[in-house]
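Supplementary Methods. Inverse-folding protocol.

Structures were first reduced to a discrete structure-token string of length 462. This string, shown here, constituted the complete conditioning input.
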């Protein structure tokens, strides 16, 4: 089969979001520096002392992406650059200029029997499991081999990569071989170092999702997932589905849920069925044939709205409940029991389909067709399995839904009000997102509207 090449053009502004209001940071007397450990991390990241305190304060104040920051302090400048992937900053009295940025890169899919031969000259960062299964992927002594998890998807790992880059002579061209976690963290580091970054994704999540779209980032405890980062686009993406031969079954299925999500949004149910079958049988040729369309769907959405100001939000289909299930599972279970992101999203997709129908936006027929697809694609699981993965004694306990609502409301302490609205991507038809108003891609849904759908969701699994 011939290689397929997608040419991707992107353009956005820096800062990504136009500010609609301003937060004026006070001019502190003296230093805002934190602990010695924080100072060491800030130095490792090349940030001014006190940047981490500014970030923490901004999260505590719940500053949104459209609030610009006014201050002369360097730590505010450094924090503004990465807070929720960048907010506007100005010195008192200055105007904000949003610089247009643009670029192009190629996304190629190679279908040979062995890994593609990539040009030399790039400094490589290789996922530890990939290095173990594919020793020839590691080129030289300078390569950094590193294994990260959601727990180490942190600023500390970004600093570790920057340190290794320095030790390797501060190379200006980097290449990342690994899954979505390594891609997100290493590309964030590359953005801070001003180096170019090529992606060689080795998981299905990374191929179909993480390596397309320019989002990089890390988790920032206790403020949540992917809260700090940069929009930073790769210089090229080289997909070779052969890497998936060594990917554990669970990881493959979890990645398939994100692919199914793209295909549902694209309105391609037959293609989604075929893809699910290809994943079930690990049919590499069929997976390779399907990948360009799956990636292209995201490429098109991102080209329209790279900074996720509008339509890009539809890619969060299934993620409102998905993130809450993932977070709860992480709070209460450990190791193999914990739900993977894609597994949680698969369940979230089913919930979104049922909620869209219960709210009267999606027809019964379409909801049934999509529910069957999700079952077939392995996105659903038995009630007893879900119970174990959520670490609860009884899946029907009303306290479980309360906990999920708390997480959906992003509030760590309070029980949300029943009429508090949360944002959902809902479907109106296969391939069409429900829009209550033009240019609005998410719909506010009150918490108490989730109760009936939660019961139907449990019955659909049971
Ligand atoms: N930036 C984005 O737009 C975007 C989009 C989707 C997901 N993500 C992020 O991606 C992350 C999830 O990525 P993921 O699912 O790829 O997880 P991952 O990077 O943790 O990889 C999964 C596991 O597979 C191992 N592995 C990787 N390639 C392998 C191979 N070929 N053979 C054997 N083992 C291999 C890894 O070491 C890891 O243990 C999440 O943190 C998520 O936030 C980002
Ligand atoms: Zn996702």
């Amino acid at each position: 089969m011939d290689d397929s090449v997608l040419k991707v053009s992107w353009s956005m502004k820096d800062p990504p979001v136009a500010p609609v209001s301003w937060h004026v940071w006070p001019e502190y007397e003296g230093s805002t520096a934190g602990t010695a450990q924080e100072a060491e991390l800030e130095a490792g990241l090349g940030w001014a002392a006190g940047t981490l305190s500014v970030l923490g304060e901004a999260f505590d104040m719940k500053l949104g992406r459209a609030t610009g920051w006014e201050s002369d302090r360097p730590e505010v400048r450094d924090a503004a650059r990465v807070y929720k992937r960048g907010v506007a900053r100005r010195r008192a009295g200055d105007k904000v200029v949003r610089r247009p940025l643009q670029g192009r890169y190629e996304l190629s899919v190679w279908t040979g029997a062995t890994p593609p031969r990539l040009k030399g000259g790039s400094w490589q960062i290789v996922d530890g499991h990939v290095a173990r299964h594919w020793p020839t992927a590691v080129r030289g002594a300078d390569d950094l081999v590193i294994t990260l998890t959601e727990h180490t998807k942190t600023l500390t790992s970004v600093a570790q990569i920057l340190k290794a880059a320095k030790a390797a002579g501060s190379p200006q061209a980097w290449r990342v071989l690994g899954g979505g976690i390594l891609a997100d963290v290493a590309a964030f580091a590359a953005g801070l170092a001003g180096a170019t970054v090529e992606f060689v994704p080795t998981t299905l999540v990374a191929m179909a999702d993480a390596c397309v779209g320019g989002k990089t980032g890390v988790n920032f405890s206790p403020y949540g997932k992917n809260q700090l980062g940069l929009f930073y686009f790769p210089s090229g993406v080289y997909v070779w589905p052969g890497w998936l031969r060594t990917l554990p079954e669970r990881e493959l299925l979890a990645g398939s849920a994100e692919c199914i999500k793209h295909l549902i949004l694209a309105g391609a149910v037959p293609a989604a069925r075929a893809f699910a079958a290809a994943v079930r049988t690990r049919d590499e040729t069929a997976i390779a044939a399907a990948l360009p369309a799956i990636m292209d769907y995201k490429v098109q959405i991102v080209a329209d709205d790279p900074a996720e100001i509008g339509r890009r939000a539809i890619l969060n289909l299934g993620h409102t409940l998905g993130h809450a299930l993932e977070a709860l599972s992480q709070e209460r279970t450990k190791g193999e029991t914990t739900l993977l992101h894609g597994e949680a999203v698969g369940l979230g997709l089913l919930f979104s389909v049922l909620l869209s129908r219960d709210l009267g936006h999606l027809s019964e027929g379409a909801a049934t067709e999509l529910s069957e697809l999700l079952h077939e694609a392995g996105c659903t699981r038995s009630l007893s399995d879900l119970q174990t993965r959520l670490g609860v004694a009884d899946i029907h306990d009303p306290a479980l839904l309360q906990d999920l609502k708390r997480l959906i409301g992003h509030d760590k302490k309070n029980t949300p009000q029943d009429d508090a609205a949360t944002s959902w991507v809902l479907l109106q038809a296969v391939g069409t997102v429900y829009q209550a108003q033009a240019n609005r891609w998410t719909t506010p849904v009150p918490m108490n509207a989730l109760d009936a759908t939660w019961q139907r969701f449990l019955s659909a699994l049971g």
